[in-house]
Amino acid sequence: MARVALFIPCFVDQLVPQVGLDMVHVLRRVGCELDFPQEQTCCGQPAFNTGYWEDARPVAERFVQIFRQAEVVVCPSGSCTTMVRNFYPELLSGTPLQAEAIALGQRVYEFSEYLVKVARVTDVGASFAHRVAVHDSCHGLRELRLKEESRELLRRVRSLELVEMPYSEDCCGFGGTFATKFSAISAAMGDAKAGYAETAGAEYVTATDPSCLLHLDGILRHRNSSVQTIHLASILAQTGTAAERRAPAAPARRQQ
Asked: For 14, what's the count of Cα atoms within 13 Å in the CB-facing half-sphere?
């Protein structure tokens, strides 16, 4: 199996570091050798999405330089994976690193995508005795064309009941700086999504984007909802064994 370089986004590093650790546990369990380039920083997505391309470009160039030797790069965020794979070629167009950025983008994978499509693993030996619904985050679904990958992995988790909530493909309302510029709209969209999770009878809502889960966690807590949020990697890290079991299983609200 390939040697994997870990790309840990800002949201994970600063707010939900357990997600990164859980991804490491799973990748090691399926036989991956791991590298963590400590020089890595933000991929530049917030500045890029807000229109500050001149500020985002040096960050993107640094990312390419740091990961240029990586055989495979795996990231627990669909939006950050999208930034590197889909938008670096545009951001670095006309620069000496454009061709290298395009080549690197083809070696960068979202976590569930890597497991299912590259490593060809769907059963990672996980156990999680809860009802779980999937939120299809926008970048993963619309930019990376990922939907079934997370569900394939969840169907192989022992004792887990996968439930489909209505409008799982609808945006949760986070959208990066959208949540701050249009907070009322963002909150209303999140409230609708939280209601769908409750309607489905889910105990947990999961996704491949920690930013979406942080947003939904705030909405759910505001509603005094019993539904909790948990990243896909944190479900897959659970084995039910004393050595690896955490109780409760690392929902986003308990990682802050």
From this structure: 7
Task: Note the pLDDT tens digit of each residue in 152-190.
Answer: 999 999 999 999 999 999 999 888 778 888 889 999 999
- In degrees and rounded to multiples of 5, residue 184 shows phi and psi of -65, -45
How does DSSP assign 118-144, residue by residue? IS-------B--SEEEE---HIIIIIS
pTM of this prediction?
Answer: 0.90
Residues 6+ apart with CB under 8 A from 28: 34
Domains in the chain, CATH or no CATH each? 3-118 (3.40.50), 131-254 (3.40.50)
Contact between residue 142 and residue 102 where contact means Cβ atoms under 8 Å apart: no
| pLDDT for 241 | 64
| Residues 6 or more apart in contact with residue 116 via CB below 8 angstroms | 122, 149, 152, 153
Q: What distance lies between CA 10 and its chain's CA centroid? A: 12
